[in-house]
Amino acid sequence: MYIEQLQKFKINLWTYLVIPIAFLGLMAYNYMATEGVDTNTMIKQTIEMIGINGTFVMLVSPLVFMLLIVLFYNKFIQNNTLRILTTSRPKIDWKRVFFSFGLWSLITIFTTVVSYYNAPEDFVLNFKPEKFAVFVILAIILIPFQTSFEEYLFRGHMLQGLGLATKTKWIPLVVTSFLFGIMHIANPEVEKLGMVIMFYYIGTGLFLGILTLMDEGLELALGFHAANNLIGALLVTSDWSAFQTHSILKDVSEPSANIQIFIPILVIFPILLYIFAIKYKWSNWKEKLFGTIKPIEVE
Q: Chain centroid to CA 173: how far?
């Protein structure tokens, strides 16, 4: 009912085109403007000028503003509510958000500790208490806005709009997952590891889309995405990542595209889906992922 519920309201389909077209146009412009530019070098130069925390704020703040645009557009242009953009439940289920956040936080911490003890030579201690404390505050404030923007845009606004337009569920699932991956194409990780990393980004988008469709809401995706970016940024940084932060550890290993890129997609994400499916008693996978949008009574 996450997509179907919108049929109760008189929403013009063309209104779902404005924000995606504007955002994709901005992405295309940004990609062309930085083509041939070493983004990693550009980030390092920015860090030299305004510092690590300043660079972090500069990179993340625009996405906070974009979240406000999406929510404003949803409320005042489409006359929609935050609840409908978020979930098919009578109200937003914050327990789902925090469960997903907590589960992925624990897994991220565990895998980081295992990686550190398996190959301590790949890490150096990067912990500087004062700078870390400032970064913690900035990260807690800004990262949930950044990740929520991506979820409300791709798994909310775009997925619902494409679902209404195509009367399908699999088309919006595939399209939004692909676009979510493409959004990261200008990241320095792509430049360092090659286009193979796009399998991870697109696969993550697919995982988050499946979460949204199976659970009939964004809550689990919101929690996972926030934990992934926030806890990851607090634990480990590197000189070639999009987020270069005052984290606890710094990864100094030489990055390479190997089988580890596919482990989350092929192993960890399916296990998470199984855990969520058991906890929330998911059923009828075929209908929820590949079924059609059935008409319901319009008010």
A: 14
How many domains does the structure of the chain reveal? 1
Q: What residues are paired with 123 via a beta bridge?
A: 251
Rounded to whole angstroms, what are the CA distances from 173 to 30, 208, 292? 25, 9, 12
Closest by alpha carbon to 142, among 61, 227, 39? 61
What domain range includes position 158? Answer: 4-290
Burial category of 7 from C-beta neighbours within 10 Å (exposed 0-12, middle 13-18, buried 19 and up) = middle
- Contact criterion met (CB below 8 Å) for 27 and 183: yes
Q: Is-above-0.85 flag for pTM?
A: yes
Asked if residue 295 belongs to a domain, the reply is no
Assigned domain for 142 exists: yes
Q: Let me know if residue 246 belongs to a domain.
A: yes
Say what the alpha-carbon torsion angle 234, 238, 240, 244 is, to the nearest 10 degrees: 40
Tokens at 142, concatenated? 């800004």
Evaluate whether residue 191 is within a structural domain.
yes
**By 3-state DSSP, what share of the chain in percent is helix, strand and coil, each rounded to 5?**
75, 5, 20
Please list the alpha-helical segments (H only) found in 77-158. 82-86, 94-118, 129-150
Q: For 52-106, what is each residue's pLDDT tens digit? A: 999 999 999 999 999 999 999 999 999 999 999 999 999 999 999 999 999 999 9
Beta-bridge mates of residue 168:
292
